[in-house]
Design goal:
389 residues, alpha/beta, FAD/NAD(P)-binding domain, D-Amino Acid Oxidase, Chain A, domain 2, 5-stranded parallel sheet, binds flavin-adenine dinucleotide
Length: 389
């Protein structure tokens, strides 16, 4: 049966874009969110890849920060400065979520402030129970309730298991009343994760992420406080946040079902996040869009295949590379340290890194390009050392 009535749980980027696409195609769409447009803990950074796919994110009138310079640090070494040909854009999440929900509503989606507490898919038409006791039924349910989501279609075959601690990063951060034009990232020795300072229109989102099964919240707070002191950022008047960020292992992406007979997962609920960079907004929007299009075409079963063809394999590659990026060594130093070292002294390597940040460099061709460029990068490093002397 072609689903005509769609219920979407979660109005973040995944749910809102799915709702917009399905409603625009004439399906009956209701979206539930327990916050609606809110300041979801996040950096709010959108790569050029996201801006190419959704130009309204760059062209629209909403407040945002356009960033053209990145500073990368590892330990106490001096930073590498990378100029970007294509800008990154940083939104407050309240603004971004509001913008995407408005688009969904204008396309004809009904939007309700409500919390879903249970999700039963045992009958042909799945049933959702809300916190106020109301029950809702639809032909198809989209679960786009983010990383903390505990609702899963348990009775379904196949049934997705909850994500394991090894598939998450813990994050902590502050919204700091300060301004900057530079996006900063810092890697710490022997630590799988990074610190960031993302400039927004009228404040900074400063934070840290680390693997949930490897770093305690106290350790994250200690590193974060030390970083803020180092950057001269006061915690006075700064609002604290913490949240989970999916950081899926390759086997999780390969084997966890994201579609059943009358339900599908999108965005963070489906663990669609780059395990190296933590980029999730673009993948949430695009997975929502692919699902919305598959529903509109009357063929939801095509969604996993389309998602895999477009970026599922790329996310699997990122998941495979992430532990190596943080743990392995190259030319006698940690890869994170060598990356910054090369970026500081080799223009060729800087261009490659800029491509990774803007989304024009994929992980598939990365190893080959790194090896092909290695002699040039080494020569540039040697030249920079000699010139420095
Ligand atoms: C600290 C941090 C920094 C990040 N920085 C970046 C970044 O700079 N760039 C980037 O691309 N990605 C970043 N990410 C990842 C990004 O935030 C997520 O990938 C993205 O928000 C996923 O979108 P989503 O729609 O799947 O889920 P969410 O944005 O989490 O939206 C889920 C929605 O569902 C609602 N909800 C949950 N449960 C229920 C329920 N039971 N009933 C009703 N509603 C419910 C929630 O209120 C929420 O609005 C960051 C993540 C974290 C934690």
């Amino acid at each position: 049966m072609t689903p005509r009535e769609i219920l979407i749980i979660g109005g973040g980027p995944a749910g809102a874009v799915c709702a917009e696409r399905a409603a625009r195609a004439g399906l009956g769409v209701t979206l539930l969110d327990d916050h609606l447009a809110w300041e979801k803990p996040c950096g709010g950074g959108l790569t050029h890849k996201a801006l190419r796919a959704y130009p309204f994110l760059l062209d629209g009138p909403q407040r945002k920060k356009i960033v053209r310079q990145i500073e990368l640090k590892a330990g106490d070494d001096p930073p590498a400065k990378i100029a970007l040909d294509s800008p990154l854009v940083i939104y407050s999440r309240e603004t971004l979520n509001g913008l995407l929900l408005d688009r969904a509503e204008r396309a004809g989606c009904r939007i309700r402030l409500a919390r879903a507490v249970s999700f039963d898919v045992s009958s042909a038409r799945p049933m959702i129970c809300l916190a106020d006791g109301t029950q809702l039924q639809a032909d198809f349910v989209v679960l786009a309730a983010g990383a903390r989501n505990r609702l899963l279609p348990a009775a379904s075959k196949p049934a997705p298991a909850p994500l394991a601690p090894a598939d998450f990063e813990q994050t902590a951060g502050y919204y700091v009343p300060a301004e900057s034009d530079i996006l900063k990232i810092k890697f710490l020795p022997e630590f799988r994760g990074y610190l960031w300072s993302f400039p927004r229109a009228d404040h900074l989102s400063v934070g840290i992420c680390g693997k949930l099964d490897e770093s305690s919240t106290a350790t994250l707070r200690r590193h974060l406080d030390a970083y803020m002191d180092e950057e001269g950022l006061s915690r006075e008047g700064a609002r604290f946040y913490s949240h989970l960020l999916p950081s899926p292992r390759a086997q999780t992406l390969r084997s966890r079902p994201i579609l059943g007979a009358n339900w599908a997962l999108a965005g963070d609920a489906a663990a669609m996040v780059d395990s190296i960079t933590g980029e999730g907004i673009f993948y949430a929007m695009r997975s929502g869009e692919l699902l919305g299009e598959s529903l509109a075409a009357g063929h939801p079963e095509t969604y996993p295949r389309r998602l895999r063809a477009e970026f599922g394999s790329e996310l699997e590659r990122a998941a495979g590379l992430a532990p190596r990026f943080y743990r392995e060594r190259f030319l006698g130093a940690a890869i994170t340290v060598r990356t910054i070292d090369f970026a500081r002294r080799s223009p060729t390597f800087r261009r490659l890194l800029a491509g990774l940040f803007t989304g024009s460099q994929d992980y598939r061709t990365l190893p080959l390009r790194l090896w092909a460029q290695l002699p040039i990068s080494l020569a540039e490093m040697a030249w920079s050392t000699l010139a420095g002397r």
